[in-house]
Amino acid sequence: MTAADRDLVAALRGELASIDPVRPCDRDAERAGLASGARGRNPVIGRLAVRLGRRTPSDAREAFDWATRPDHCRFAWLRGRFLSTGSLSIANGRTHLEFVLEPDEAPVLAERLTAVGLPAAWRLRRGRGVVTWKSAETVGIFLRRIGAGASLLELEARQVSRTLRGELNRVINAESANLGRSVAAAGRQLAAIDVLESDGRLAGEPATVRTVAAARRDTPEATLADLAGRLGVHRSAVQRALERIERLAVRPGRPLA
Fold this sequence. Notes:
Layout: H1 3-17, H2 24-33, H3 43-52, H4 60-63, H5 71-85, E1 86-89, E2 96-101, H6 106-115, E3 121-125, E4 128-133, H7 136-145, H8 150-198, H9 207-218, H10 224-231, H11 235-249
Antiparallel strand pairs: 1-2, 2-4, 3-4
Helix pairs in contact: 1-8, 2-5, 8-11, 9-11, 10-11
């Protein structure tokens, strides 16, 4: 990630860690979510644990009864799990959020996320359980539901900006390729017209072919649609005339039926 991306992720985690749950049950739930993970290595999470209360259970999965708790408690617990075991990457316009857990907790967390409408994949990696999302939309919904605000808006704005830049580049590249093909085709057509005019065969062609040839010479940059509009004929008629001119030019002195 770039320095700006890392700063944004840090700001988002700081914003989530600054949430002070009003309900005692939510405080207990978030404290349970923090019960294992990176609390000791991260001063922000350490201060959050102190603020929520020092009675930290030794096992988060036993301390929190997911099945009987309402959604606001569940998302407080998930906020704690994300802060203590989760990581977010937004490098190169790709969004990747994962939880790194004890191996037997990964399928449990994946099942719980599915229960709240946010299904996630899980696997084992180097002896650890990993629960993963790679969908920017799903990650955005999750972060919003666990309390992210201003930082998430900034993240979404960056994603929209990157998407728009990518789409603009795609359109520009496509237009450039089309322009290149049009220029190459016009060059071939002008060369073919010169050949037919120099050996006198152009004069013997039907009026439509001669008219299209003259229009192409006058406006080498014109598209087939432009030529058709200028001459008042169908685009297909212009295309057939130019194709005939090119075919004739590669058959020196031979008439084309």
